[in-house]
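Give me structure tokens for this 247-residue protein.
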Amino acid sequence: MKASNFEFRFRYAIHLVIYAICFVAPWDPARMQGGGRSLWSAASLQLARTGIVGFGAASASIVIAGILASFVGAGLRTWGGAYLVLGVAEDSRMHGAALVADGPYRHMRNPLYVGTWLHTLGLALVMSPAGGIAAIVLIGIFQLRLIGAEEAFLSAKLGAAYAEYCSRVPRLFPALRAQYAASGASPRWASAVLNESYFWLFAISFSVLAWRYDRLLLEKAVLVSLGCSMILRAVFPSTQTGRAQQA
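Here you go.
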């Protein structure tokens, strides 16, 4: 289940395409007509039907879960990105000159991909039920394909050192205690926050605006978050250096 070189090279564009298609959800007649429910309202209704809580409490619970997922996703990506070389993180090629295990990489092997999927959980609530579920599934599958490609590359490139690392550090579910000795790399927090600014802007805007239960407003917030992030990164280009291993 490995991604092709084409998929890895254009992974950012593919993510955007998946999100855009799922927002439009052309297979959902109600969405195409400009109506229909959001995933958060549909999920709230299903939770309320269990009789455990009322619809209001169910809706608030779903929104809180989405907010938490968004912030945890942004935090994971920032923590992981703080130990990555910017060129490595965004290059269309895979890199594996050395194994460097610091920060979240001592607890899990793929914090960036897990962070993206958690972000998708929050983002999907803004979509229609069909689009949101599709986004969660498709992004999850694509993340696993990218992980498969990277781990195969690093195994071939780094050999026994990477095999030992994989045997000790979980792939997706973080260990509470660090499973690998730190290499001593210093995090670049300012660059990491800048690089992941879209995820933070979305998490903040979602936490503020979700309580208005206005899907159109939240969709605009997604676009504004993406636009502001692009402007910030253009105005304040990152010069981060550090981690040599692709993640």
